[in-house]
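Q: What would this chain look like folded?
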Amino acid sequence: MQVKVLPQKTGVYILKADDVLYVGKASNIRNRVKNHLLAAKSNLREAMIIEHTKKIDYIITNTDVEALVEENILIKQYKPKFNIQLSDDKTYPYLKLSLDEEYPTLSIVRRPKNDKNRYFGPYADVGAMRQTLKTLRSLFPLRTCKLDPRKPRKRPCMNYQIGLCSGICAGLISKAEYNERVKELLFVMEGRPDLAIEKLKSKMLQASSNLKYEKAAHIRDRIEALEKTLSKMTIVFSKPIDLDVLGVAKTQTEACVQVMQVKNGQLVSSESFEMKAQNAEDNEIIESFIQQYYSKRTFSPPEIIVSTKLYDASIIQEWMFEKFNSKTKISTGVRGQKRRLLKLAIENARSHLDELADKKRRALKGLKELQKILEFDTLPKLIECFDISTLRGKSSVGSMISFLNGEPLKRQYRRFKIKTIVGQDDPKMIGEIIHRRYRRLLQEKSQLPDLIIVDGGITQLNAARRSMLELGMELPIIGLAKQFEHVYSPNRNRPMSLPKNSEGLYLLQRIRDEAHRFAIAYHRKLRSKTAISARAK
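A: My prediction, written as structure tokens:
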């Protein structure tokens, strides 16, 4: 490793074998690489990096902040084995309030933009986020359809009937009232619910004094519902301060960062983010997390509390100022309530890692049971499962989901529009998508699964096998029938029944149910598009 030829300048260095192993930033590239060599004598992770490195590339930058930005770009591009990265490579969802529209809506988006709209998140727990969206829509009904409010309909949509829409599409609320409702919602989402309640109480009194008692009663009900929801929120500071608290817990191979967001003195969210972090130190984990997490956000808090001093704290603060045009202080060694909140964040991170370890133990046990039951020589680590969703043969779709080591591998999920089958014929549809999937894998010479699961019984299983035989291939495959959870195998005359408390059965059900969920979601999306298109015509 020729360290002497490296520049003593600010920039990014790239340690390579055949692939990129590690990307780092430095004020002095040569000195930082020397530090890797020294650390390798006592640190296993550093030793592994140095052992495998065959070549060092570098990019010189003008400033430390430019180096930090470039490092983040390269890590996203190459996903180096030894860099600390968020475990799930998907983009986490946000709630978006579309203030750039004449009639704003509240929706879910994956990629926030630097525009006039307001974004809240990101949310690691998608289920909790959807529940939050549902609650906010019931408290502050805005429009949910894409119909033009400037062209009122005779009758409002179904969402209005169940209290989730304002009825703007039918002219049941004025533009001024609608804008007031948007302001009230924004107050709540910004952590200032007292202002929303104050506005609602003022409107209730005004309606009552104008003898509009029904309207006043409706506003009273909204106030009570809002106060009931807010009673579940935790007030952690007596002062109206905003900050994020980052608690870290780690094992030898992974870490969890717990992000607690405080707005206006109230704890408004607590999210767990898993990271790949092989033998990494706390400060490395936190620095990497801050770069990845806040690079996707459109705003930053005035203060971020962390548990350990960061090596590049000043550079990160400068980068955040350039990105958000506002100062963010990174604090350590805090006291009082801030210290208690930091301890709570760390405890939550540890608890999440414990839950993760338990899930992995159960998944491994399930894989071992499947290996034994199906008489495999090795564990079926990579599993692909197929399902069909159709409504009387219309808008028929197929799904394929992938599990690796008993956990979802979402970047490998695939969706299929059924192209060759007309009418209701699930087995033939399964045959079509199996053929399309594995024809492509053979053409690309991609990795094949250790086990294929089809949702259904012997007819679906036989259709899938015929498709594979047409391709001149034979892979381990089973069918899982819903009614009695029977497992069909081409190697057995009769279906197998696994014990109800079997981890193997539980794993099969998880995989099958995830394929079913993914297929239904796609089917609903297509049906919705068809309905909107028909309405437009």
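Residues 532-537 have pLDDT under 50 and may be disordered.
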